[in-house]
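Lab channel / #folding
Pinned by the channel admin:
"Please post every new chain as: sequence first, then the structure tokens as a reply. Keep commentary short and put observations after the output so the thread stays searchable."

First post following the new format, from NK:
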Amino acid sequence: MKRFVDLAELGTPAVRELLTLARRLEERPEPQALAGKVLGLLFLNPSLRTLASFQSGMARLGGSSFVITPGQGSWPLETRDGVVMDGTAVEHIREGLPVLASYCDALGIRAFADGQNLALDLADSRFAAMAALIDRPLINLESAINHPCQALADWKTLDELPAAGRRRFVLSWVMHPRALPLAVPAATVHMAAMRGMEVIVLRPEGFALPPAIMERARAAAAASGGSVSETTDRQAALEGAQVLYAKEWGSTAHYGDTEADRALRRGLTGWCVRSEWFARSAPDCRVMHCLPVRRNCAIADEVLDGPRSLVLRQAYNRLPAQMAVLHRLLGQ
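Reply from TO:
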């Protein structure tokens, strides 16, 4: 494996092999597997689980890591081409990234969507520009339209559930005070489709996932024997569901328009996951969320702290999943 940027690039058999390795490393650690190896981590956006799990995973495999957060202890980075650099950015990625890559054996990059131009974000143009500058193993720590690290850990979490094969999986929009990127919902719907699940995207009007994301997921579902559909009908979506994956994202009908997005979500406070959602239609449904989560805005305390919540297990699974990626990229 030369890079880890998209589960679709690997394909289902390779993903399952990675998860087998993750489980093996949980049971039989290899504390010297990556001795002498160095992982570089470039975070253009904040992180808790991704940063901590990669650093911890590298240390547990005997390697080391360094973290660069532009503008916080290192120079602010310019990512755009052809600009006159007379603002706050001191260094350009064209020089900065090759230098960082030369100091490590693999480089991970986190670069969120700008949230202004949907076409550019769907093309993952900023991440692609940075990836083109790297001459060694590359890890997508979350880009504009993908989060394969989260998706891999979520796949492992689903594997741990009873009867983990074909299940009704609901990806539900939930409330947040502001628009969030599409990376996790895009990665999640595609991951569940690759698993061959019955995937339902539940969302209010104005928050449909872009056609390109849905078409890609439907193609994955067709190959795996699953299905992908979408609805605004909560009761119909949750009927018999085994998993509800709660996630926030911005209005695609008003992409980049902060005021229009805010106005649209103002009346959607009822999209907070509560126990009553499951009482009749899905009493055994488990709840997932990638974290961080706004309590009593996206998911109520009673759900997060109750027996149906899987959020802490998801977060833990980031560690063995990341260790498997590092082992496959850098191990002998």
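NK: DSSP finds 13 helices and twelve strands in the chain.
TO: also worth noting, The first strand starts at residue 3 and ends at 4.
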